[in-house]
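Project standup — Tuesday

K.O.: blocked on the structure for the chain from last sprint. Re-posting the sequence here as requested.
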Amino acid sequence: MPYAYESGDILSTTIPASQRTYYEQLLLDTIRVQSILMNFCSYKEDFEAVKSGRMTFTEVLDAAPNWEAHPESTVWLKGGHLDSRQVSLELEIHGDVLKFNDYADQVTYWNRGDLRGLVRGKLGQLVTDEIDILARNAFLDHTSPYYAGGKTTRTGLLAADIMTPSYVEDVVVDLEEANIPGIFSPEDGGSKSIVCVTTPRVIRDIRHAAESPWMEVNAYEQTGRIFRNEVGMWNGVRFIKSNRLHMRNYGEVLAESTLVSDTVPGQGAATTDGVYTVGQAGATAYITVVDGSVFSVGDSLTIHAGSAGAPPSEDDGTQETRRIVSIDGNNISFDTPLLKDHTAGDVVTNGRDVHASLFIGGPSVVMGVGERPNIRVLPKIDDLQLVNRYSWRGFLKLQMYRPEYTRIVYTSGAALSI
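H.V.: unblocked you, prediction finished:
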């Protein structure tokens, strides 16, 4: 057989090129529909960059006018000087895979060949989440972030350092003084405006501030809601909410411990959370930490790599955050199972939540693509040919390239009285 190894494995090609192009576009459409932050990034493709792994963008700067009058004897003008600046992107390989058994009840509909549903569903969501996190991290890689209350770091924020309308006004004036153009409306003939992508908690803080004449979506006059997840407008800023910018436990460390032993996906969920029966039969329903007494039921903990005393980092892709539903000595059970491996000694942190507010006055993050995100249907290579494998990969980079078009404000969030 042309596709047989000596061992007897039967291999087939993944997806015909024509179908791959279709699912590639379907995957991109899914990302655009479901993502919040990617929609505010510039998108550049250079398929030749696959060879070099690098993309370079060149921007020609505006010339500076000379407004002095010229004498009558003027023959030659020196002329305006044109200059440029460049940004280079080192492309990165990103991807992941979903694996499941032919008889796994929760995914049997995929086994019927519903690849389109898979791309729009769980695999599409997996890609969307990663791209959105990469976009968020690129926005957060800003040269001059602002911290509420005059603080200088995220860990310095206190509970009272919340977003107020005065911060919004200051940011708007700062962008206007810098001649930042604003984001184009997606509608034909629409106007430009500053967009603030922030968290639901920050939206609440602004709305409930004493001096806030908030304009609700249903009170818009002629502008109306034009962006997905747009929740209101104030002082010429359109506000969009996304929990992607709610950075749980990224502030001051309030309590922490470490894992006693390695954990595996599926571990850590309580047998019941009052409503749901969670986790798989036979899975360990808890994790064990060195000292469970420092935590309380209801705390949201982040398990992450790093050093003791330090909060999680947005660059750590191994981290997971879960809410505690029960504590038995040093054994802690969560509301949902862990979905990643964690190593003994990893830090378990309960810290102050940080809320990032992105004020976007123009395209400041670029998504450079050498190979589009695309799916791969991999052959079953286990002895019983039971394990399905659907993966995605892309050769791309999201990077800040115009920091002057964006302002970032880090705050805490007011506690809810519920």
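K.O.: great, moving the ticket to review. The first helix runs from residue 17 to 34. Confidence is low (pLDDT under 50) at residues 1-13.
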